[in-house]
Amino acid sequence: MINSTINGLRQSRLFTKTRKEAPTNEVSRNAELLIRGGFIHKEMAGVYSYLPLGFRVLKKIENIIREEMNKVGGQEVLLSSFQPRENWEKTGRWKEMDDLYKVSDSSGREVALGPTHEETIVPILKNYISSYKDFLSNSPLAIYQIQNKFRMELRAKSGILRGREFIMKDMYSFHASVLDFEKFYNKMKSVYKTIFERVGIGHITYLTFAPGGTFSKYSHEFQTITSVGEDTIYVDEKSGVAVNKEVFNDEVLNQLNLIKEKMVEHKSIEVGNIFDLKTKYSKPFDLSFTDEKGQKRTVLMGCYGIGLGRLLGTVVEVLSDDKGIIWPESIAPFAVHLLSLGEDEAVKKEAEKIYESLQKNNIEVLFDDRLGVSPGEKFSDADLFGLPLRAVVSLRSLRDGGVEIKKRTEEKGKVVSLGEFLKIFSK
RNA sequence: CGGGCCGUAGUAUACCGGUAGUACAAGUGCUUUGGGAGCAUUUAGACUGGGUUCAAUUCCCAGCGGCCCGACCA
Fold first, then answer.
1. I want to staple A224 with a disulfide (CB 3.0 to 4.6 A). Which of A11, A76, A205, A397 is the partner?
2. What is the largest CA-CA distance in chain A?
3. Which residue's CA shows the smallest distance to C1' of B36?
């Protein structure tokens, strides 16, 4: 509903081009493949632009997250990136947060470039929350956005896994009671699990017990196992639960009913986290309400983040082979990579026909219609782009009765008729 | 923010105290078309500033930028 994307694109019109050689100043796999494939462009360390293919993937991830946030009753907003200094003074973070970008205009007014949005959303809610009744009709009260964040990373690294400007989904929930908060918090645990399953890394992503902030003792992270990860976690395969190394101690293990010897150590990357904020941010702004008994009480809060770029980069990091990316169907920029080989008129005509048919059937297709490009180059691009299904039209495929289709994960393809081809998608 | 390595065409690289060679990409022409084609031809390059020197892309210093390790964080 929110985005409307085209479902067909001719590769001859795609303004990006693939690169044969990996950029030498990028060691990380995600950056190498995404840059070679023209999914992203590097502006500076930790800052990347998304190009057509990368943008499509990003939008798909975004929509999956949006759907899941809406399912739990989240209301989407877009908060400002510029945030007045005063709000950050109130929470003490103007001084405390050393990766805060501070900018000033010609009049000398100082503002923060939002690294997170507690300081923005809480003052807004102050205008609208005053009674317990505000929570009765509107429960859960959860507000989220998908937006660029800015953090002055001292060391941006690992391609798009740790940047200075990055896209994040951040949700904030507001509660009148601990019970209400806990109910919602637990719901978010399962929603997050669903999100990571839907983007294709559910099997290696674990709910992880982790250190909390200043107010809560603990929080929960979602950690995806990968050797490039910055974190170390201990996984209990049986329960599917993990514990971050930072809080891997007897107290925690007892609490979670886990046995130390059965936990397996892995490197992992944090793709999402959920926090119990209690009154950490509601208090400084005096976000409170009057309860049934006429008592004034401070609102309880939770916050829930997912870094979209990091998630995208993690998928590439985890799902690729020596030839390129292997996108899960759910977030691939297109479902089909249609290649037309050679310049025979019959081939061109058939390829055009298939291109039209796929689009008519609402199947997203990238059509490599380029002339004068060798088959080898087209195959290599297809492997690099990593679309789930490759469809080749050539004199050979026509001779064999149609179009040769091959999954990105398969070695060999098979020739099918156009009708059979379309049937694959009609399920 | 500490430490290390590095900055040469669009990309990847080479050589050198006397102004730079190669491959890919790009342009043109012809040929080629199932795993990054061939021939011919053209275009294009030393991060910035300072120092040493007759002469600096090369040596020295500083700045800026990049990557990696560490600390810190989604």
1. A205
2. 82
3. A377
pLDDT, residue A104, reads 87
What span, in angstroms and rounded, lies between the C-alpha atoms of A11 and A17? 9
Is residue A214 over pLDDT 70? no
Q: Could you tell me the two tokens for A161?
A: 């896994």
- Residue A177 tokens read as 């009671």
Paired tokens of A172: 């904030």
The residue that minimises its CA distance to C1' of B67 is A25
Find the residue closest to B72 using CA and C1' atoms.
A154
Torsion of CA A363, A364, A366, A369, to 10 degrees: 40
β-strand pairing of A288-290 with A296-298: antiparallel
Instruction: Enter the tokens of residue A338.
Output: 């249609």
Find, among A221, A139, A143, A217, the residue nearest to A183 by Cα.
Answer: A139
Tens digits of residue pLDDT in A382-403: 999 999 999 999 999 999 999 9
Mean pLDDT, to the nearest integer, of A358-382?
Answer: 95
- Distance (Å, rounded) from C-alpha A311 to C-alpha A63? 13
Output the six-digit token pair for A87: 């709000």
User: Which structure tokens are listed for A244?
Assistant: 């971050």
pTM over 0.90: yes
Cα A356–A358–A364 angle (5° rounding)?
Answer: 115
Q: Is the pLDDT of residue A1 over 60?
A: no
Q: For A112 and B61, how far is CA from C1' in angstroms?
A: 37
Query: What's the CA gap between A263 and A233, in Å, rounded?
Result: 9
What is the rounded CA–CA span in Å between residue A194 and residue A178? 24
Closest by Cα among A243, A224, A225, A241 to A233: A243
How many other C-beta atoms are found inside a 10 Å radius of the C-beta of residue A28?
Answer: 18
Amino acid A128 CA to nucleotide B6 C1' distance, rounded Å: 55
How would residue A23 be classed by pLDDT, with cut points 50, 70 and 90? confident
Å between CA of A137 and C1' of B21: 75
d(CA A75, CA A171): 9
List bases, strand B, within 7 Å of protein CB: 1-2, 11-13, 24-25, 31-37, 65-74
> Which residues is A170 bridged to in the sheet?
A145, A305
Burial of A231-257, coded b for 16+ CB within 10 Å and e otherwise, reads bebbbbeeeebbbbeebbeeebbeeee
